[in-house]
Specification:
Length: about 250
């Protein structure tokens, strides 16, 4: 089974692409959703968070008070690192479990939707990386992107800035892409780009997934080969430069 990483930048349309892929019956593993699941009441991650930050970061019903926790770690890099050290491994484990279930269900491929796919280093573990790119988003002012994020997430200016600063520029992310989906046009054009990608994907996979399912050794060898290539040759600066020149 091919594991595909999907990422983008602020206001590039990654979520729209994920919805279009899901409409084509492609399995989507949403890292943001799993990040909420792994800190539900009773989970190991939530217990570790409470141990580290105290019970004041809990709501009365025992759920995590995300706003309160955000206030605690917002201006404290050391605390933020401690929080990430708890949550990120739990999310990675949840992603792996979900991928294994999909593989057992004989899926040809699945898409892992991760906003910080590149920044977290998870791109190295993907068989393929898709970056959603928008000339509009890359060329729009920082204030416009900031306002869009604040409106979308109902967040404060400081929270939105923190999220923006956590991401590398979209033009740099493109260097890690195996496939770039352009969202600079209309919704209809975006849908056509997604259709073209899925058609290309089907042709590339063909019957190889059946062989890999019947002979697990071949599947394992293919995975090791792909990850080795990803680790040593996964970045393509020329691709980023081409899109940067296009945006000028």
């Amino acid at each position: 089974m091919l594991v595909i990483g999907l990422t983008g930048g602020i206001a590039t349309g990654k979520s729209s692409v994920a919805k279009l892929l899901k409409a084509k019956q492609i399995q989507i593993v949403d890292a943001d959703v799993l990040a909420r699941v792994v800190v539900q009441p009773g989970t190991k991650a939530l217990k570790k968070i409470v141990k580290e930050f105290g019970t004041e970061i809990l709501l009365q019903d025992g759920n995590l008070d995300r706003k309160k926790l955000g206030e605690v770690v917002f201006n404290d890099e050391e605390k933020r690192k401690k929080l990430n050290a708890i949550v990120h491994p739990a999310v990675r484990w949840a992603i792996l479990q979900r991928v294994m279930r999909l593989w057992m269900n004989s899926e040809k491929y699945c898409v892992i939707d991760v906003p910080l796919l590149i920044e977290s280093g998870l791109w190295r573990w993907m068989g393929q990386v898709i970056v959603v790119y928008s000339l509009r988003a890359s060329s729009s002012s920082a204030d416009i992107q900031l306002q869009r994020l604040m409106n979308r997430d109902n967040s404060t200016r400081e929270e939105a800035l923190s999220r923006i600063n956590a991401q590398i520029p979209i033009a740099e992310k493109v260097a890690y892409a195996d496939y770039v989906i352009d969202n600079s046009g209309t919704p209809q054009e975006l849908s056509a780009h997604v259709d073209a990608y899925v058609e290309k994907l089907e042709k590339e996979i063909g019957w190889l997934w059946v062989i890999g399912w019947l002979i697990p050794f071949i599947s394992l060898f293919s995975a090791i080969w792909l990850l080795s290539i990803r680790r040593f040759f996964g970045k393509n600066p020329a691709k980023a430069k081409a899109l940067a020149d296009k945006a000028k």
